[in-house]
Specification:
Distance between the termini: 66 Å
Largest sheet: 7 strands, antiparallel
Number of domains: 3
Order of helices and strands: EEEEEEEEEEEEEEEEEEEEEEHEEHEE
Radius of gyration: 28 Å
Number of helices: 2
Number of strands: 26
Strand content: 35-45%
Structural class: mainly beta
Helix content: under 10%
Strand order of the largest sheet: 1-2-3-4-5-6-7
Amino acid sequence: DDYFIVSSMDTGWDKTADTRVLRYDSIDTSEQVVSFEDLATGTIEATYTNASSPTGVIGQGTLVVGDGSYDFYVANSTYNNYIAMDLNGDGDIDGDEIRITVKGGAILDLGTTLDADAANAFPMQLAINSSEFDEQNGAEIVQWNITEVQAGSDIGMSNSGQFKKCHASTCTLTSFSLNNPDSDDEHYFGATDYGAIFDLYDPTDSDTPNELTIDFPLSQRGANVFVTGGVTQFVESGEGGVSEHVNPIGVGAAILDKDAGALGTENFIVVGGPCANSLAAQLMGNPEDCAAGFTEGKAIVKLFEHGTKVSMLVAGYSALDTQAASRAVATGAIKEVEGDEAEITVTDVENYVVSGATQ
């Protein structure tokens, strides 16, 4: 009834590698059949042939599951017909490390050695390749330690300097602090640049084990953010034109859409399209298709009036398009556009063209 993991990743980081969690179920030595349970798909059987080497072995075979083939040995009855498995499909059975592919493309590395910087600590890592980021700046790695809590018996995890991360072309691990909210003294939370959310459950009860939950996104995740900006007024100038007076936006003015008041209660800058931001959906009339009106490589900046209040929508087809539109607003690149809507044609975050919206 032993559980084990196989993965068709024998070198490097491969997000396409197939990873399976298996259980050694039973063996029929007369028929030379070994039964395994794949926790995802059910029972798998593999046959083996007679073998006398290495010492203590009665057979060898190959388990084919998913995209991988994994050789195994069967021990004799003296050793209770234990099996030895090639866990990473590299063709040998010698204790190689396996790396687990996580849904979303991350690689979970269970490690093989102790942490040289921490006593009695066994590190694990979660890695995401640079190519998965909207803006590539090297791989992201998060490391945490499994530590000895009580000499010789208990192990666990701690937020006290045991989490590290890096995100750079040359990766040097530095401290990654998980924060403890005022409302919960047993959970510690943190988020990475890619948008992986870490939740460490560290109960005050010493008899309850620690738990680490990682919410890993299917693609890079960003916050749904918009900004409230005090009073913005449009007043008639002395020559009969219109001049604009904009108050600076204070630090801390960014909040999530779910925490905002109703449209028209403040002047808003709403960042993100209807698929990502509920206020953006309201501004766009709650379209049935939340992507309607957006095309890849394009973004819009549009003003909406609510009586004496104004909302500015900054939204693109993708996160990159929205980032470029936000930069166009921040740098003042849209100020030459007449009317209440601008269109941004995006090559990348720093290269875009601003024009009046096409009808």
